[in-house]
Specification:
This protein is of the alpha/beta class. It has 2 domains: 218 residues, Rossmann fold (3-Layer(aba) Sandwich); 85 residues, Orthogonal Bundle (DNA polymerase, domain 1), CATH 1.10.150. Helices cover 42% and strands 15% of the residues. The protein contains 15 helices and 7 strands. Strands 3-2-1-4-5-7-6 form a 7-stranded mixed β-sheet, with helices on both faces. Helix 8 packs across helix 11 and helix 9 packs across helix 10.
Length: 331
Amino acid sequence: MDTSTQYPEHIPVLRDAFIDAILSDPDGHYVDCTFGRGGHSRALLARLSSRGRLLALDRDSDAIAVGKELEQQDERFTICHSDFAQLSATLDGEGWNKVSGIGFDLGVSSPQVDNAARGFSFRYDGPLDMRMDTENGQPLSDMLDRVSERELVDLLRSFGDERYARRIATAILKARRSNTLNSTADLENICFHAVPKQARYGSTHPATRTFQALRIWVNGEMDQIDAGIHAAVVHLKPGGKLAIISFHSGEDKRIRDLIASEVRPCTCPPEMPICVCGKKPTMRWLQKKPVRADEQEISSNPRSRSSMLRVAQRLTDEEAAKQAGYSVGQQ
């Protein structure tokens, strides 16, 4: 079966830029931490040699089913049902220690959004679920029954940059208590009417940021990013590359700061003219300023509009030692 044409609705964002960023050795071992429907994996396999290998991870059972089909077609490819917080354990289980490149494409895939039963989208009426792994974790409905208003306001602001977080949080919990919030259609309606009238008809639907924030919360996505990046740094071989695509400012800032702590790990106080803490850098930026989709890609794939790609590379021991003596003022 040709799975590359089975899911034509799923278009991987920044495909060529992502593959160019991660690929250093056609004979190397690579990891796609977010397989989705395999767009990036297939593009990478097309550029690997017969000796190259690709390991993919995903926590979505539907994605794993697609990956298993690809696994049967290409002996260079292996798929694991795992989230990227378990990256180290997964690599150890496969007998992989150091790899040539690791890539992440964060967020939710088009097939997930378009499946009403998953509860990711306000465009379709579905259950209050939003789990990427439907076999584990708690659905949104259960989590809303235990969250306080203050916590909900904070997560809408932190994960969704929602200007009207307090109004929306109050409305959500009031509806939940009165048993009038039982589906994504209910949630969309609550968000729409919670914001001021002048904010209801802009270019962005009033529920967009709330749905994004709740999805990130349900799936622990920020903690996943932390664990995934730390594991990636450990498992990259010298010269190996890390490429990460994100879709909103909170994710991008988290990624930037985590990589920056590896690029300039010094903990000396600012008044110190020279670093004396002895912490050595492990990474360098290859693309500190995010790569964004051009107008042509945005036209063919509107989902790519908000995508941001950052790229870093593992230093050799010699490079790390050379950079370890930088002044504190260079941070």
